[in-house]
Amino acid sequence: MQSAVDGAQRVGIELGKRRYDIVIGRGLLDDPLAFDNLPRSKSAAIITNTTVSPLYAQRLMHVLARHHQESLLVELPDGESHKDWASLNLIFDSLLAAGADRRTVVYALGGGVVGDIAGLAAACYMRGVPYVQVPTTLLAQVDSSVGGKTAINHSLGKNMIGAFYQPARVVADLDTLDSLPQREIGAGLAEVIKYGPIADNDFLDWVEANIAALLARDKTALGHAVRRACEIKAWVVGQDERESGLRAILNFGHTFGHAIEAGLGYGRWLHGEAVGCGMVMAADLSVRLGLIDGNYAARLRRIISASGLPTRAPGLGNERYLELMRVDKKAEGGEIRFVLIESPGRAVVRAVPDALIREVIAAHSG
Amino acid sequence: MQSAVDGAQRVGIELGKRRYDIVIGRGLLDDPLAFDNLPRSKSAAIITNTTVSPLYAQRLMHVLARHHQESLLVELPDGESHKDWASLNLIFDSLLAAGADRRTVVYALGGGVVGDIAGLAAACYMRGVPYVQVPTTLLAQVDSSVGGKTAINHSLGKNMIGAFYQPARVVADLDTLDSLPQREIGAGLAEVIKYGPIADNDFLDWVEANIAALLARDKTALGHAVRRACEIKAWVVGQDERESGLRAILNFGHTFGHAIEAGLGYGRWLHGEAVGCGMVMAADLSVRLGLIDGNYAARLRRIISASGLPTRAPGLGNERYLELMRVDKKAEGGEIRFVLIESPGRAVVRAVPDALIREVIAAHSG
Lengths: 366, 366
What we know:
The structure is a homodimer.
Chain A: E1 9-13, E2 20-25, E3 41-49, H1 53-63, E4 68-76, H2 85-97, E5 105-110, H3 112-124, E6 131-135, H4 138-144, E7 149-154, E8 157-164, E9 169-173, H5 182-199, H6 201-215, H7 219-239, H8 254-264, H9 271-288, H10 294-306, H11 318-326, E10 337-343, E11 346-351, H12 354-364
Parallel strand pairs in A: 2-9, 3-4, 3-5, 5-6, 6-9
Antiparallel strand pairs in A: 1-2, 7-8, 10-11
Helix pairs in contact in A: 2-3, 4-5, 4-7, 5-6, 5-7, 5-9, 6-7, 8-9, 8-11, 9-10, 9-12, 11-12
């Protein structure tokens, strides 16, 4: 008899004592093997949201029954606009009220917002408890659940309050992608596309050739995309866990993207939508700096557009964009720094003069 | 000419890439040498409270002028009752409004409450910025500023939300102890006394012989006490940074102590007062378990009493004490675990039956 986990793939994040596996495959939510060798304890806390909970929480509780005698379910309100202190504190209140201790294992069941908040809660509850990411969106499976970045938003900036805190495992069940609205498939593809120009141009070729299969949620195509994205992210994070250098390249498109999200109010555009449009702008900035030619930027724009993503930014005004980007975490001493494409498949982080940034905003927004 | 830092002593906390020095001496707030080789950046943020700020903030800003072009001053309300999310968020609001970036250095100027909140703010602001502890109370100089434990309180438990996050330096200026109310000298001595029974009985002999000089703020005596306390703490933390074992012994007296603080409402008793009384109770528990004899517990009680500390706990009721202690971070699976004195100068962590705990509470409270 075939186990459901047969065909599942594992990608390791090599961080010494903090190393862990990403398990990618179908049917994993029901497969004990996907959760093998994880910490066992009296209690577990499953952090999810009101949308995901009715779909998957019972199945996760069932598969975890042999690890924990009791499972606490914490349902957060859904959406980026709730990635805030109120949601974080709801988790703390629930954990303390239920008597969770330092051995309690936190499971983050949902998309990037749930994963980021639950990860930060795990990092800070009693100064740190183990946690497992169970991402149920494409964006979370290819990016946010991997690498230990956790955060909540502040009204003055996205992801401003957070911690680097690695999970004990990431379990990416491809079948959960079936429940996603189409808009979120496109948003996830933005983060898939990202890995090509910054690290692996062959992967960009593959994505371009398979964009229709990916949008149609072909599981073989999605499995390959998730695995390759995680491999690249693992390679980057393994070298620079706390983003003192190389890791910043994973933020390609994010400086413009965060400004779009914050400027419109969190949740208006999905994070992946903002990043997609941000990549179009950052690629144009790379062209204007003479790093890549216009054809490459145009091709990238076509792939982003073919994923159903917006490629024109909202008109917030030049100065508002600059103001929003000056609080970006990559900014230093008031200078805005961007991830740029140095050559196809290779990124660089560089401060850019305000005048050039204004040109790009003017050309791509409004 | 003698530098003011002459005679200053350094104790190293050996944590590999996170190693740092504790500098102990007089006049350090005005001495650039105490702050040598620390990160320089455009901006600094000095986190303090409304009591400490008028005494020392200007001097700290002055000595830091060569490290940072601008200093942001954030004044928190004073007291343990403000060791909460509101104070933490006040820091985040101030840092973001001032455009602080990932190179901004945070200085915690004050006692244990300021140090714990500012340390957590540094741990989480943009996922971590460097910070320096400048403790101005005896309790902070001998304990809370050293070792990287940061936290805020939750209404359901003390220090429940926090992080392990090491400072880049601890600068303990003994002259700042002159501005302390006498009650806080006693509270600080509780944490000094603690190190004897758990790790160095000769040091307990020394404290006993010098209690009058310490209470009179004799700088030679205080200097020795701070240095020896930091040496012991450095030895413990160097072996177990994240409290997976040995480090828990530093919580001698804290399980009962935290229950007293939480039960009365934070701020009614000073932390050190609660710990002093908690040590009397934990020593009695050790006697009842047959670990040490009654004479040693009685002697410890006399030293605590001679420091001006209360040795009788408030009457909260047996069951309320048990309830409060069950959320202690050392508790596991509902069992309350205590730091006990195994023999003079040696501690052990052990779960204790509720019946015995009730006996100790009944004998020492009300």
